[in-house]
Every structure is written in C-alpha cells, then in structure tokens.
Amino acid sequence: MFILLPPSETKASGGDGPALDIEALSFPSLNKVRRRNIEDLRVLHPDDALQILGISEKLRSEAEANTRLREAPTVPAIMRYTGVLYDALDVSTLAPSARTRLGVGSALFGLLAADDPVPHYRLSAGTKLPYSGAAVDALPTMKARWGSAVTEALQQVPGTVVDLRSGGYQQLGRLPGAVTVRVESVREDGSRKVVSHFNKHYKGLLARELASADTDLTTPGDVAGVADIARRAGLTVEVNEGLSAKDSLTLVV
Hints:
The chain is 32% helix and 16% strand. The protein is α/β, with parallel strands linked by helices. The protein has one domain (2-252). One of its GO terms (cellular component) is cytosol.
C-alpha cells in the first residue's frame, strides 16, 4: 500500500542533510522533468519569481530559497512539509515501516517517497513556470511539464495506492484505480456538507492509520480493504457506489 499525500505551501526551513542528489530520489523515471524544473526555478530572479509564484514581498525569502536548490541542505520529504495534515499525521511518532508506505505529490519533484531528502523550495501545482530563455508569455503549466510522467510512475507502484492529494496535484498525474477520499460532515438535519477547512486534518488522521496498519493491501484499488482498516481504527467511512464514484470513499466526521 502506498499513501500519496498532498504537499503543503508551508515548509520547514533549513536542514542537516547533504545537498540535493537527484539520482538518489525515488521514481527515477521523473528525473528528466525534475532537472528541468529545478533549473528553470533556480535561475528565476526573485523579483520575477514573486509574480510568477504569486507570493508577496513578505515571502521574498521563499523566492530566494529557490535560487539555492542545488546547494541547500535537505531533510526527508515527510519532514519538510508542515501544516494541518502533517500535524495530524505526526510522522515523528510513526514506526520506520509505516514511513515506507508514505509519499508526497510535488509540483517540483512529481512524486517523492517519505524519506527522499529535499531542500526548501516554493512551487505550486497551479504555477506557470517559464522555460529558461523562453518568451515571457510562453508559460507552461506544471501539468504540461509533467505530461504523463507522474501517471506512468504511479502505475509501477505495487498494491493499493490511496491518493489523498488535492485536485490541483491530482491533475499533475492521476492513477486510474487509485482509492480517493472525500471528507463530509453531518449537519443537524442529517444532510451532508463537504468539509473544507479541516479536510486536511482528517486526511492526516486517515493516512496515519493506514500507514500504521498491521496488514498490507497488495491488490490494486482495494477500496474495501482501505475502508476496513479505517473502520478498525474507529473512523466512519462509506464506500461510494456507482461508476462515477468507483474506487472512492467518504470519510464522515
């Protein structure tokens, strides 16, 4: 089982690992696009990067960090990302075996295993990043940059893939048959409401339970198996019916 998490805009700074070694990252089939992304991001002047990345002057340090991608210190990817989902995941208390089930979708790197060492960076799925030396109005989307590479890499992952990425990151490379999850709350009148603000929190809790489960899911798209693990952990989940909802769960909170 492989649990694919979304990244976060907020990231831990610094690190104590060696500089980025692309050849050491998981999913080596993505390295060609990774190198191009890194180079195109690295050469952006911070003044231009502020506009392209859609960030304010207060976050200039984020743009400046991108210029040091090749020499900056690294930390394992699962420790680089921060925020609500990662607080709920509480990865520092997970067993090493649980970490091997976790991965992160990334605009810059495509896919990462939990312990892949990466530097601090700023790049989002919705960014239009210019190719080095190209005309300013020629801004390819990250989806266009990745093409089919992320999907093809995910197709090589054995067992069940649980895709907890947000929509923008799923667009960088969907995996047909991956188990997806939506989070809904129950109103007082019994009707349902899609959870937005705390969506990441509940997905973090679910990811933790799946990663820590004492059973593995070796069959692709085992939505019933995912549901069973969640229920044994005390979570309320429903297997969605119908062709449009195939391979999806609703986490009811």
